[in-house]
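Intended use. Records like the one below are meant for learning the mapping from a protein sequence to its folded structure. Do not use them to infer anything beyond what is encoded.
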Amino acid sequence: MSAEGHVPDSSSPGAGTAGSGPAPNQTLTLAAMLFAVSMTFIDQTIVAIAAPDIIDELGLSSSGMQWVINAYLLTLAAFFALGGRLSDIFGHRRVMLIGTVVFVVSSVLCGAVPTGDFAQTWLIIFRATQGVGAALMFPAALAVVVAVFPVDRRGRALALFFGLSGALTAVGPILGGWLTDWTWRAIFWVNVPIAVIALVLTLMARIPQVSRRDPLDVPGAVLVAAGMGLSVLGLQQASAWGWSSVTTWLCIVGGLLVLVLFCVYERRARVPLIRLEVFRERAFTVDVLVLFFSMLAFVPVFFFASVYAQVSLSASPNQAGLYLLYFFIGFGLASQWGGRILDKRGARPALKLGSALGAVGFALWAGKLTTLSMHDQWPYAALAGAGIGLLLAPASTDAVNRAIGASYGEVTGITQTVRNYAASVGLAVFGTVLTHVTTNRVADTLQARGIPSGPARSAARQVAEAVTGNADARRPTGSGPVATATRDAMSSVRMDFAEANRAVFYGMAGALVVAFICSYFHPGTRVTSRPETAPHPTGQDTAPA
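Structure written out for the chain above:
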């Protein structure tokens, strides 16, 4: 790539798409892709809200319910890179449509789960296929938007794409609480009308079908899926298995070793799944690093803020969802600003300003958590959201703009894999911090009320596991002096939990500080022109719509 930040692309300069036929409708295209990916964002949070009702009706174990939630996130992380490459080979529009169908059929089957002994296995299987559908759909949908919008308009288009789709994550808890009042099965069935709208708009938008005659790197696909799957599994299960568990570290270290093997293999493959030479460009590497460290905070904040609101603020699930809206108001407004900065000045100013605002916002928000007042926190929650919103679209768009040979699906697969992996790391690490600090502080509280050290720590661990597992820890059960003291001390326990969350939010601020440091290494070059695609060893096949 040139020093000026040129991006090789097979698309025509005007419309930003390849192929003959009528130009695509950019507005319909963006709307179609937003409807499609909205399902993947909502489903990251909506199931957790309905978990108690699902457990009660189907008789699932708590560990089984955790697998129902994790199966989606695990397959999503494992197959994102493959989904992006498949969209390059078979066409972004085609793979997006296939992914949407797989996702919505899996959603219907999740909602139709029969009662009985097979219920848990049924749900886990079809939650996993939901994740596969999302892994096919999301990178392909993002690649469609990138291909349809020319470089000079891409920043604003993707700012709207990331701003609205990211904000929809906050809809999950609110929508989940409302639908669960009717039936928890509706949290899956709600995807059907959304998918129908996405499919109809996609067909109406006249999106060209562009495909490449590349062979699929099957060994590379197996290695990256195994490596991502194993390491994410270890991170997800660390709280259940324990950080001292051999199984936890076998999964994490084994997965990382498989990913190293994947990188070695890819450097020698004739047509690799991921062309690692894209990391030779400093701007792309910095974009990915900024995304990684910002995602350590962005996705975990949904969980930690929601549980904090329900435990420390005694909020209902619906109120907890509204609490998250403070964050997303700032996120949605700033994401549009970030897109304009990218189009006019490049990614570096947005990355620096966004990570700085995010770090300050999370730090100030952390300091206000112990006030136990939503009213005192909203400006800082909005500031933290604004920081993430300001950098997310520019970092993602700038990375995609620097794609090799117009492999938009491939590069979006890389960036989305990094984002999901960072989210898994953040949830695991910050979850451990939350449990550890909560246990220590609750134990101190109980000992101050005369409970001996051993029973106090045992009770504290039970409280910590309950609240960090999204259970209702506000009504401790049991009898005896320890249970009685715990119930009597619940006002103090709520403060203990708030202080534990403060440590987590300071950690999120620290992650944004590292992102800010990384942003300084961005060269500041802009992608300003679109030269012809570099020759590809296996050629290219373009099929009009």
